Amino acid sequence: MQRGGPVRGEEEQRRGTTEHHLPSAAHSPLPVFIFPPGLDFYADDQTSHKQVLTLYNPFPRVLRYKVLSTAPLRYTVVDSEGLVKPNSCIDIVTRHRDISARHYGTTDKFRVEVWEEGGGRGAGGRKDITATLHPTKLAQRDRSPQVPLSWNQPPQVFSVRQDTSYRYTGFPRPISSGLFSLYILVGLVSLVVLMLPLHGDPRSLLHENLHVSIIQKLVAAYVLGLLTMVFLQG
Questions:
Q1: CA distance between the termini of the chain
Q2: How far apart (Å, rounded) are the C-alpha atoms in residues 223 and 54?
Q3: Is 230 helix (H, G, I), strand (E, B) or coil?
Q4: CA–CA separation, 117 and 121 (whole Å)
Q5: Closest CA to 28 of 91, 146, 115, 156
Q6: What DSSP character marks residue 155?
């Protein structure tokens, strides 16, 4: 889910935290399927202060996950750790708690770690998600594309605060009935594909013609991610 790490706040300094290089997440033993790859928060757009990460599990086994952050005091995460059932997905809602001018342009990082239920975290996988606060949404749209800078000496990753009292409901803006029906139909088809057994699964009672490949499951998971962004962010 970059540039040099931001200067830490006074409260974080009192905690005695130090900066060091994070281990690379580029070669995770277990692939992590999460969408989107980055989060953009806009100070002048209150609806953007809450963002959704969708974590997919296309495997026929239960996965456990945990979300970490380089700036835990600035974010609240709903269900920052838990389980993802086989061939399903889960939405992880993140909220920026410190929208202030001193953080404009600051890029933090979330790290999503997954591992097989009952197994060790060392055999799992991880993926990093960037999170950037922009002053205005209009300025971000008009800005010319730039080559992202590599992270140089990022801060330590900490567990983020978990908010169990908040649950996201509703859409940020209305969708036409015809388009909404199409989205629902495509979403249902994608869910069916995710629930179908993989090729060669000896435990399945379905005909082999109803078995799907891992690539088909990944495509269906990607489509569900796009629909999630359409529904929740517009």
A1: 21
A2: 11
A3: helix
A4: 9
A5: 115
A6: B
Beta-bridge mates of residue 42:
134
Convert the pLDDT of each residue in 37-96 to its tens digit: 999 999 999 999 999 999 999 888 999 999 999 999 999 998 899 999 998 999 999 999
In order of 174, 188, 225, 230, the CA distances from 183 in angstroms are 13, 9, 12, 9
Q: Give backbone dihedrals phi and psi of 28, rounded to 5 degrees, phi first.
A: -70, 135
Nearest-CA neighbor of 44 among 170, 139, 174, 131? 139
- As to burial, measured by CB atoms within 10 angstroms (0-12 exposed, 13-18 middle, 19+ buried), residue 190 is buried
Closest-CA residue to 75 (of 150, 145, 159): 159
Write the pLDDT tens digit of every residue in 110-166.
Answer: 999 999 988 777 778 999 999 999 999 875 554 545 545 444 544 555 666 655 554
DSSP string, 173-223: S---HHHHHHHHHHHHHHHHHHHSPBTT-TT--S-GGG-B-HHHHHHHHHH
Interior CA angle at 26 toward 144 and 194, to 5°?
90
Q: Are 90 and 66 in contact (CB under 8 A)?
A: no
Q: What is the pTM of this model?
A: 0.53
In percent, the amount of the chain with pLDDT more than 90 equals 35
Q: What three-state secondary structure class fits 171? A: coil
- Backbone φ and ψ of 63, nearest 5°: -115, 145
